[in-house]
Amino acid sequence: MKKLLIFAKIKELMEIGQRVNISPYLTHLSDWVTGEIIEIEDNPYRGTVISAKDDKGCIYWGEQDYFTLAI
Known about the structure:
Elements: E1 19-22, H1 24-27, E2 33-43, E3 47-54, E4 59-63, E5 67-69
């Protein structure tokens, strides 16, 4: 029997209250913005959707791919 190797993108586990970097694709700014996760939604059409608020109070939301955990 042959073994098949399957490579999958491992998603970071994110929780409400964590600090994240938000992609310029969502913010329409030139650099990544740091914010805090305020909501996590399991959307059947778009996958995991994250909502995050930055230090200025702006809220950005999008697929989990547009967020990375802040160090």
